[in-house]
Design brief:
369 residues; alpha/beta; six-stranded mixed sheet; five-stranded mixed sheet; 11 strands; 17% strand
Length: 369
């Protein structure tokens, strides 16, 4: 059966406790110490993490890091990656916008910084046959990768816009179950779940391997069909102690992004090989092609869309009122971009904690109402 509402609630408690207790951690002993001996990087085995998958496989990070040893850890969803940062087990991680915002707000702006974008798009609500309209989801069982994760927040916002109430304990008009993506696939195949809001390649796998269909491609809810799916975040303490290592990480990141954009077919094969190595087996060609067509790799963190996601998390009861000033530290990224002759990216006014508080914007034009 899907994870119970009680388990979902209990799973959130350790993370919230860590978040509440780490407010001053980043400020302690943050003097520059030179390049780090080791960089521990978190990522997901998802197509939306194409940049780190390629960066690892093609050696872009290793070449830039030099003598700094690179270790990586694979996570299922963003809240777990953030918890690892707070626990001191990971220094930087590729994760979605909502876990980054949650970490920043609950640590009073001390714990993490977003230093780059990585992906736009690549998330969908898939449903079993027979569901064609939002109102048909009343009473449905819906999976998301993790409570408070990016897809979980997007689902709750979309349901609310269509008059369907949810709670963080699994109640309301729709029952939402935080469920690992691989388990979600099995539950669909067994007829034990009705819908899921998931990232790629899982949306495509659910379509082709479990007979679901896409009810909502999240790109259709945003202006220009662009919204932040994956960011690169770093521990604030690590950023302050090892700025040279963060610069090297960003050079590898930007090089990987550029290579993917210049060699899309080869990059797709590299990503698939990495998914096989990290997740057990590569994707079927039809799944890979469909998933790849739904994402865009980008260094731009699409900062305005992160602020909208934060508003959705607040409305869903997953986040306290947010002052997001200072969540971005994009100066190192923009220095790397300038050195490559590329234009800088914008932080939407959220890169300076001394500015007047930036309100969380309302729903963007074009989002369903």
């Amino acid at each position: 059966m899907p994870a119970s509402p009680i388990l979902a609630r209990l799973a959130l408690l350790p993370l919230l406790g860590v978040l509440a207790g780490c407010a001053g951690a980043a400020s302690a002993d943050s003097r520059p110490l030179g390049p780090a001996r080791e960089l521990r990087l978190g990522l997901f085995a998802n197509v939306t993490h194409a940049t780190p998958l390629v960066g690892l496989a093609q050696g872009f990070y290793a070449r830039e890091l030099g003598t700094t040893r690179l270790r990586y850890q694979v996570f299922n969803a963003g809240p777990a990656a953030v918890e690892a940062i707070f626990a001191g087990a990971v220094d930087a991680a590729y994760t979605g916008p909502n876990p980054a915002v949650n970490a920043y707000v609950r640590s009073h702006g001390e714990a993490v910084r977003i230093i780059a974008g990585a992906a736009s798009g690549g998330a969908s609500l898939v449903v079993r046959p027979g569901i064609d309209r939002p109102e048909q989801l009343r009473g449905a069982r819906i999976a998301t990768p993790q409570l408070g994760g990016t897809q979980d927040v997007a689902l709750r916002a979309w349901l609310a816009e269509h008059g369907l109430r949810t709670t963080i304990t699994g109640g309301g008009d729709v029952r939402i179950y935080p469920t690992a993506n691989a388990t979600t696939l099995r539950l669909f195949q067994q007829g034990r779940i009705d819908a899921a809001w998931v990232p790629e390649p899982w949306a495509s796998r659910l379509e082709l391997e479990a007979g679901t269909k896409v009810l909502v491609d999240e790109r259709d809810l945003w202006p220009d069909r662009r919204f932040v799916t994956t960011n690169l975040i770093v521990s604030t303490r690590f950023l302050r102690q090892h700025p040279q290592t963060v610069d090297a990480l960003l050079r590898g990141h930007v090089a990987a992004t550029a290579w993917i954009r210049q060699h899309p077919e080869q990059a797709k094969r590299v990503v698939n090989a990495q998914l096989g190595a990290l997740g057990g087996k590569p994707l079927a060609p039809a799944v890979l092609d469909r998933a790849w067509s739904r994402i865009e790799v980008t260094d731009d963190p699409l900062a305005v869309t992160l602020a909208v996601s934060a508003r959705h998390a607040y409305a869903a009861g997953l986040l306290s009122q947010a002052d997001l000033r200072g969540i971005y530290e994009l100066r190192p990224l923009n220095a790397v971009l300038r050195a490559r002759g590329q234009p800088p990216v914008d932080d939407a006014g959220l890169g300076d904690r001394t500015r007047r508080p930036a309100p969380i914007p309302s729903h963007p034009a074009g989002r369903s109402a």
